[in-house]
Design brief:
This protein is mostly helical and 226 residues long. 73% of the residues lie in helices and 0% in strands. Helix 1 runs parallel beside helix 3, helix 2 runs antiparallel to helix 3 and helix 5 crosses helix 6.
Length: 226
């Protein structure tokens, strides 16, 4: 009795198709949101200052998509962060309606959307920095990976606060909407603390998920030696 030859199952190719399309879908979504957010914005200058990271980062990711493809997890997080920045730029952070709802619901004195924005400023860059270190440095299986990732996120947060300071010095009262301090004298410290919490949460919650996402690209971290 002759053995029948089985054709390879098409499932892997089918399952990879959505993953290949994901970056394009996310890029189109962010682009549309960015364009729409420009119309009817509360403050055009603030919109530009808040979304400049998206305006610069999106073309860069597209240009490097073949040379340095990003994991699906990182693509999704970057898109989510971009939407957070776009919403904040459209309304200004102190006036985002969702933040007003949370403020009124919890009885707080300020719109907390900027706190959420700075949490994301730590949460998403943590995975970005981790992916860069895993793929381009000897730290891919080092105990220093998490610590240096958090340090990099805090450094980025500090640079952003310096940019806010520069905007305040050069723009005066015109930069108030961009600063979004809402009368809090400790706003800078709170912003950096929120970024620290965000980066720590990202590493605690997503490190294993990120390793699996990198493995799907053939770039997974090697197992630690016993």
């Amino acid at each position: 009795m002759t053995a029948t030859h089985r054709a390879p199952a098409p499932t892997p190719a089918v399952s990879l198709l959505p993953r290949r399309r994901l970056p394009a879908v996310l890029a189109v979504t962010v682009t549309v949101a960015l364009v729409v957010s420009r119309f009817g914005t509360a403050d055009p200058t603030t919109w530009l200052l808040e979304t400049v990271w998206v305006i610069a980062g999106l073309p860069l990711a597209i240009l490097l998509r073949h040379r340095f493809p990003l994991s699906g997890l990182l693509c999704g997080l970057l898109a989510a962060h971009a939407l957070v920045l776009i919403v904040g730029g459209h309304y200004t952070y102190a006036e985002v309606p969702a933040g007003d709802w949370v403020r009124d619901w919890l009885g707080w004195n300020r719109n907390p959307y900027d706190r959420f924005g700075h949490f994301m400023q730590g949460f998403v860059p943590a995975i970005l920095v981790r992916e860069l270190l895993v793929r381009t440095s000897p730290l891919r299986n080092s105990r220093w990976l998490a610590a240096l990732t958090i340090c990099a996120c805090l450094a980025f947060s500090a640079v952003f606060e310096m940019l806010e300071w520069l905007a305040a010095v050069t723009g005066g009262n015109a930069a108030d909407a961009f600063l979004g301090t809402q009368g809090d004298v400790w706003d800078t410290q709170w912003d950096m603390f929120c970024a620290l919490i965000g980066a720590t949460c990202a590493l605690l919650l997503l490190s294993r998920v990120h390793d699996r996402a990198l493995a799907r690209l053939g770039l997974g971290r090697p197992a630690a030696s016993s």
